[in-house]
Amino acid sequence: MAPHGSMTSAQAADPHAGWQGIYADWASDRTVFRNVSWGKAMMWVFLLSDTFIFGCFLLAYMTARMSTTVPWPNATEVFALHIGGENIPLILIAIMTFVLISSSGTMAMAVNYGYRRDRKKTAVLMLVTAAFGATFVGMQAFEWTKLIMEGVRPWENPWGAAQFGSTFFMITGFHGTHVTIGVIFLIIVARKVLRGDFDRGTRGFFTSRKGRYEIVEITGLYWHFVDLVWVFIFAFFYLW
Amino acid sequence: MAKHGMAAEGQVHPIKSYLVVWGWLFVLSAFSYMVDYFHVQGALRWSLILLFMVLKAGLIIAFFMHMAWERLSLVTAILIPPVAVLVFVTIMSAESDYTLLTREMFFAEGTVP
After folding, report:
1. How confident is the model at residue A63 (pLDDT cuts 50, 70, 90)?
2. By the number of CB atoms within 10 A of the CB, which of A136, A166, A198, B81 ranks highest?
3. Could you report the per-residue pLDDT of A205-227, keeping only the tens digit for each?
4. What is the pLDDT of residue B65?
5. Element (H or E) spanning A173, and its range?
């Protein structure tokens, strides 16, 4: 890919890039993450901590599922939808997956247009991302309603191991909360982009700092992470 | 590194690269859905699910989150610690096997205490 090629030539110019750069960066008695602002570095550290949280949720799910003597409910049948006279397995979950991936695509393009200082395209793409995210949460609410109507509770369900309900509500609920928070932040940042706050250096309402277009990338990192977590939930909870 | 230029302008890459990654994510998601749709079972099912999952996660981290273009100091600082989760998985899967064994031995189904 072309951008990667240009990066390789840039790295060749810097004697401390690549693997040697690791100890050069850590031993240089200065900011370790060069070229990375504190905001972006802190978002990455936050995402790492969030990785451990979701990792432990999935781990708890694995432990519950592996150690129960009662059969685990068949996700294919539980999450099937009755459309046009026949049961289509996992169809809602598949659509949710495609919606979230599409939102990641529009987000990546929003970041790109942000750095090109194309205000309108950036804001529109961010709002499209937020709309996809809201759609995802809506479908999740539908899915929760359907399962609750069918009798799934955190302590019991009609099909098998009781832990199915508790892990399902815990994991998808926590992920849905992340998506919701992401939608709120996307709308806030999109509004700032549209107003031109980052072109004029308007001070923000909370920290009184001047914002930069980099906040679009930082918000994007969070959003892609939410998509990333869904990849693992989709694989382990719905498909396994 | 001041001459690098990326710090000033941020991560700017051609839009096309995002569209290509987006397309691949769609294809891989469709594949993982097909695994369920066609009822692939056993070891093949689990290995296909894991393969598509790892490929999708890799594409998102590398291109959407720009890890492919970051310095290795950041890449290693963020991507190596999650290995601890894998260690935890190994420990807990051994523990789960033991719990299952004891449950089957002492709380066999049908024997109400």
Report:
1. very high
2. A136
3. 777 788 889 999 999 999 999 99
4. 94
5. helix A163-195
Q: Chain B: nearest CA to A191, how far in angstroms?
A: 21
Contacts of B13 in chain A (CB under 8 A): 3, 112
Q: What band does B92 get if pLDDT is binned at 50, 70 and 90?
A: very high
| ipTM of predicted complex | 0.88
If we measure between CA atoms, which residue out of B95, B37, B39, B53 comes closest to residue A234?
A: B53
Show me where the domains of chain A are located: 1-35, 37-239
Chain A, window 94-153: residues with a beta carbon less than 8 angstroms from a chain B beta carbon: 94, 97-98, 101-102, 104-105, 107-109, 111-112, 114-116
| HSE-up of residue A70 (Cα within 13 Å, Cβ side) | 12
Residue A9 has pLDDT above 60, yes or no: no
- Chain B closest-CA separation from residue A33 CA (Å): 6
- pLDDT exceeds 90 at position B5: no
Residue A230's identity, in one-letter code, is W
Which chain A residue is nearest to residue B86, measuring alpha carbons?
A55
Which residues from B are below 8 Å from A8, CB to CB? none
Q: Do both B7 and B59 map to the same domain? A: yes
pTM (2 d.p.): 0.89
At the fourth CATH level, which superfamily is domain A37-239?
Cytochrome c oxidase, subunit III, four-helix bundle (1.20.120.80)
